[in-house]
Amino acid sequence: MPIGVSIREGDSPAGMILDLDGNRPHELTIANHVLRGLFYEPEVSRLFTQVLEPGDRVIDVGANIGYFAMLAASLVGGGGKVLAFEPDPSNISRLHNNRALNGFEQVEIIERAALDEIRAATFFPNASDSGGSALWDPTHYPHHKADESDHASIDITGTTIDAEVERTGLTGIKLIKVDTEGADHLVLKGARRLLETRSVPFVLCELHEFGLQQMGSSQEQFRAYMAGFGYDSFMLYFDNDMPRLVPHGTRIVCDYLCNILFSTPEAVGRYWRAYRHSPGDLYSMVDKGVTP
Predict the structure, then answer these.
(1) Which region holds residue 114: left if phi is over 0, alpha if psi is between -120 and 50, else beta?
(2) For residue 167, what is the domain's CATH number?
(3) pTM of the model as a whole
(4) Chain CA centroid to CA 197, Å
(5) Is the pLDDT of residue 124 over 80?
(6) What is residue 144's predicted lDDT score, i.e. its pLDDT?
(7) I want to staple 113 with a disulfide (CB 3.0 to 4.6 A). Which of 12, 87, 131, 199 is the partner?
(8) For residue range 19-39, what is the model confidence (pLDDT) as tens digits?
(9) Cα separation values, 58 from 73, 112, 156, 163, 201, Å
(10) Based on the structure, what is the number of domains in the chain?
(11) DSSP secondary structure code for residue 189 in this structure
């Protein structure tokens, strides 16, 4: 079901077409958003519309069927570039189809997982949720509704962000988005050379604590790794309010999954030029039993 998406936010009008299969739960979720005129993952989508400009370069790791890759491509235009990594065979064909529907030659699809090094790995396609495939068995996730086919795995050979940046000669990267069900720390270990240059102002990841644990990491280890390259942690908001800085020693707590932006106050300040402050409602505090 091809759906046209008009993007009215940002400095330049943009749009994309997405072929979404309502029989696939993840794609149905996207369709339910866009058909109502809403962004899918609005805090992430609005980061894209806020910071991406014509000619920019973007890396999308865990591109799935291409919602964010196509959104990025529509914003950066023909003079820009998007590298889209996707290892799931069932998503790769959908990703190619969405690129073809839009004629986005600026999107280069890399049909491999981004890892910490170029090596073999085991990949677990998630038959119940095409957005939940991982480098660990998704049936271990407490909220997973198991399907027999979800126990299947495939052997893959991964690449790294550094290797693909070198191969393509990509420079001036504005944004890296990583959504790999908790493998984000491992993925960014494969971008060490790029991160050391401190030239990428925005690195957006999913904070999937269970997945991080399955991959031998944690929130603290992941954030410390990025802090070593000069990146602070920021939280994003649905209404595109200015990202909120979370100090290194403060733990991020969320009920389910959330997205975390690694950036610097200087980079954030270039794209959010004003901050509207409200200290809160005094009377609601009293109603809640909080004495000011």
Answers:
(1) beta
(2) 3.40.50.150
(3) 0.92
(4) 21
(5) yes
(6) 55
(7) 87
(8) 888 888 888 888 888 888 888
(9) 9, 17, 24, 15, 11
(10) 1
(11) H
- Domain range for residue 215? 43-287
What angle do the packed helices 67-76 and 89-102 form, to 10 degrees? 30
Residue found under tokens 């595109």: 240
Count how many residues are written for the chain: 292
CB 66 within 8 A of CB 88: no
pLDDT, tens digit (0-9, with 9 covering 90-100), for 45-97: 999 999 999 999 999 999 999 999 999 999 999 999 999 999 999 899 999 99
Contact 144, 120 (CB under 8 A): no
Q: Strands 81-85, 107-110: parallel, antiparallel or unpaired by DSSP?
A: parallel
Dihedral pair phi/psi, residue 86, rounded to 5°: -155, 120
230 domain residue, yes or no = yes
Within a domain: residue 111? yes
In a domain, 20, yes or no: no
Exposure string over 42-74, b if 16+ CB within 10 A, otherwise e: ebbbbbbbbbbeeebbbbbbbbbbbbbbbbbbb
Question: What residues does 107 pair with on adjacent strands?
Answer: 82
The two tokens of residue 132 are 């939940």
pLDDT tens digit sequence for 126-180: 776 655 788 888 887 776 555 555 568 899 999 999 999 999 999 999 999 999 9
Q: What is the C-alpha separation between 183 and 180, in angstroms, rounded?
A: 5
Angle between helices 67-76 and 42-51 (to 10 degrees): 20
How many whole angstroms from its chain centre is CA 213? 19
Q: Quick one: how far is CA 18 from the chain centroid?
A: 18
pLDDT band at 289 (very low <50, low <70, confident <90, very high): low
Among residues 7, 6, 4, which one has the least CA distance to residue 20? 4
